[in-house]
Amino acid sequence: MPNKNQITERFKHIQDTICNGLEQLDGLAKFHEDKWNREDGGGGITRILQEGNLIEKGGVNFSAVHGTLPDVIKNAFVVNETNFFATGVSIVLHPHSPLVPIIHMNIRYFELSKQTWWFGGGIDLTPHYVNERKAKEFHVDLKTICDRHHQDFYSKHKAWADDYFFIKHRNETRGIGGVFFDRLNEQNTPLNKEQLFNYVCDLGENFVDIYAKQTEFRNQPFSEEQKMWQHLRRGRYVEFNLIYDKGTKFGLDTSGRIESILMSLPKDASWHYNYQPQPNTEEAKTLSLLKKGVGWVF
Amino acid sequence: MPNKNQITERFKHIQDTICNGLEQLDGLAKFHEDKWNREDGGGGITRILQEGNLIEKGGVNFSAVHGTLPDVIKNAFVVNETNFFATGVSIVLHPHSPLVPIIHMNIRYFELSKQTWWFGGGIDLTPHYVNERKAKEFHVDLKTICDRHHQDFYSKHKAWADDYFFIKHRNETRGIGGVFFDRLNEQNTPLNKEQLFNYVCDLGENFVDIYAKQTEFRNQPFSEEQKMWQHLRRGRYVEFNLIYDKGTKFGLDTSGRIESILMSLPKDASWHYNYQPQPNTEEAKTLSLLKKGVGWVF
Predict the structure, then answer these.
(1) Can you give the pLDDT at residue A241?
(2) Distance (Å) from the alpha carbon of B126 to chain A's nearest alpha carbon
(3) Are the C-beta atoms of A11 and A119 separated by less than 8 Å?
(4) Any catalytic annotation for residue A139?
(5) What is the DSSP letter of B169?
(6) A36, A46, A169: best mutation site toward chain B, by most B Cβ within 10 Å?
(7) Do A85 and A107 contact (CB within 8 A), yes or no?
(8) Which is catalytic among the residues A13, A32, A66, A104?
(9) CB neighbours (10 Å) of residue A196?
């Protein structure tokens, strides 16, 4: 069974693979790297891509941190252990074009003791404009990966993503979802540790290919109005990340490196008071599809 | 002693006074008004000013809501009462010019029973560029008002503002502070209900005059770089409001009208990865002054 060092090394390697793939996909920008240490134990490698051909601002974060579990997290996790180890890879990419979606991926491993550990993660897509053909393609790609590991994973983890990536105060999903899961272990899944590890690595190793297909419209022209709409949608992304996202909260609660945690925020975002798209527009159609339970693959 | 209806009416009147004053100060924009009802009891009047001469986006919100106290708030307040009544006026103004500060004001009255009630509120200033002469002037203005009600109020409520308007994860204050207070009543202050009511009304009624003085540089030219810095500082404002602000949290927890709660967010905000101003610039000087405990009036 993989131990925490092996998981850490493989995650680090996945960060490398993804960064190489994204530089090729972008064609212009190179990642800027910051290595950092966490005062209470561990550290990470933050890689940032800014002002590329495709990507306006994005980050691929690796971290492996350990130490004493803050009380606020102990209570949230409902565990008794005092020490923790956590490693993971986190990605958020904000493209220049409003016709290309925002994407997020995270894979993580958490260990409180030799017996108490779990995997978590997910990939979700936030199109500024929902294109139903592309949304279906994205979900089919995820289902293909999930099906290699367990026949129930796609349906379960797709529903989990609908619930998780939900902006409650707006009554809308962040985007078209994807897959999300947390605290997967040998007790609550039919898979063993190695099999679960393979599942999260499979997601990580296919991330660039999945996103590449979603950048189909990267060279299409777009209007000022579409750019404005993109900034408004990014405003919603900011709301989700600062109010609801557990990874952000975990980072803030464990005094993580703030610029690495908040690399998920877009370069520019906007809020207009009570903005409502006109009926029968692409913007209105997008809003109407930002809801739970859409069966994209069927 | 003032009862909740009298307090509500006076607060509503303060909203009118402020809106009239701000329209005059702006010289161009007129408030757009939305009246709204809260499903579980009460409602409000939201007034929004957009694309004025001075103000890019701002709101003056009045609300008077009542109903059953959600458990999450009951626990936060450490009270046993089940019903609540709350009325208040909230303001956030984002000016066009980076040389004019953002301002926030709130006055509120909260009642759980005839015996259990309190006043809260405050005014704080967030200059994109801290000008020490103007900062002193702002604090002297607040001290002058506070001193009319109790000799300790300015020093206590200034320190309270330093603690409250603090962006912990950035280790910086939101701006140059001002005054902040919560749960003031006859038990924890030497003032009676009427005197406390007069204090919060005095703040509300002097708000426009205080802000007008802070718009001294409204007609000065500014550069693209200063506009970019303004957007970065607005990003911090968004972080504070979505992560820490208790009024925002209270609104979300009580299912308030979301567009009224989030009217505090700026039209445009930005995040650049790990942005650091050059040494010996106005931007660096501003950052160095965003800390607790600056004795602005002395």
Answers:
(1) 97
(2) 19
(3) no
(4) no
(5) G
(6) A169
(7) no
(8) A104
(9) 22
Instruction: Provide mean pLDDT across the span A144-158.
Output: 98
Q: pLDDT of A115-144, one tens digit each?
A: 999 999 999 999 999 999 999 999 999 999
Assessment of whether the complete model's pTM goes beyond 0.90: yes
Tokens of A234: 């990014």
Q: Hey, of B55, B274, B276, which one would you mutate to test binding to chain A, going by the most A CBs within 10 A of its CB?
A: B274
**Cβ of B231 under 8 Å from any chain A Cβ?**
yes
Per-residue pLDDT at B245 exceeds 80: yes
Instruction: Measure the CA–CA gap between B2 and B60, rounded to whole angstroms.
Output: 23
First and final CA of chain A: distance in angstroms?
36
- The span from the CA of A102 to the CA of A93, in Å, is 6
A275 to chain B, closest Cα gap in Å? 9
Tell whether B98 is within 8 A of chain A (Cβ): no
In angstroms, the CA B198 to CA B204 distance is: 10
- Of the CA atoms within 13 Å of residue B42, those in its CB half-sphere come to 22
Distance of CA B181 to the CA centre of its chain: 11
Confidence of residue B253 (pLDDT cuts 50, 70, 90): confident
Domain A4-289, CATH number (from 3.40.1500.10, 3.30.1330.30, 3.30.2310.20, 3.50.50.60): 3.40.1500.10
> Can you tell me whether residue A22 is helix, strand or coil?
helix
**A117 CB contacts (<8 Å, ≥6 apart)?**
A109, A110, A111, A185, A193
Q: Strand B117-126 and strand B177-184: pairing? A: antiparallel
- In this structure, how many other beta carbons lie within 10 angstroms of the beta carbon of residue A39? 9
More confident of the two residues A130 and A253: A130
